[in-house]
Amino acid sequence: MDQIGFPPDNSTHAVIAANYRNLGPNAQVQDQALQSLMFLEENTAVTVLNRLIQLRLDAQDPAATLRMLTVFDPKQVSPIIKVVSDAVSTPGGGNPSAEPLEEIYREYYLSANADTFATFLHYMALRQDFPGALLILEGLVRANIPPTPDIFTALIHVYFSTGHNSAAFRTVLDICHVRPSEAFTSLLRQGLYDPVAYLPFVPTNIIPTPRMFNALLKG
């Protein structure tokens, strides 16, 4: 862009960071995006920060993830900080070859959103950490952030990865308000659906999505 007379600005770095995951982590991309955060509109900045956090989680770098979390309001993300700190303190929980992170400058805190919490629920699914996932859900409720379909998609992954399969099936069937009786019969016969399975997080006013069913099929 520089060569043709259109130098990249803060929005350019934001777009690159928000869409860079499929290309893998890149320290220069991440550092430039972090430096541009405070010049972006807040919703855009939160989206970019969520993507940057995902890149660091993909790189198995919870220590850098903790530093990125300092940009969020600490009252909102304290449960997330707790579970990520536990990951850092676990032997083998970090990646010693991860790219170092430059200093993060901020003038104000950003507000985490549902995508922030969904990102870390997916992380708990990978770590097979059910108590950690429950702590994150409690934080979501305390922060008064309405749950989204992506929250429940991530929660389904948590259920399956931690052996709570019945809760995963009941969650999806409870979300589907109009359910054919054949679905109950078939799942009950296979021992996959328990109508009284304990749900630590009850879905209300959630619309089912293809990603939710994909998570159910993946198991």
TrEMBL record:
> What is the top-level taxon of the source organism?
Eukaryota
| InterPro entries the UniProt entry points to | TPR-like_helical_dom_sf
UniProt protein name: Pentatricopeptide repeat-containing protein
Which organism does this record belong to? Answer: Lentinula edodes (Shiitake mushroom)
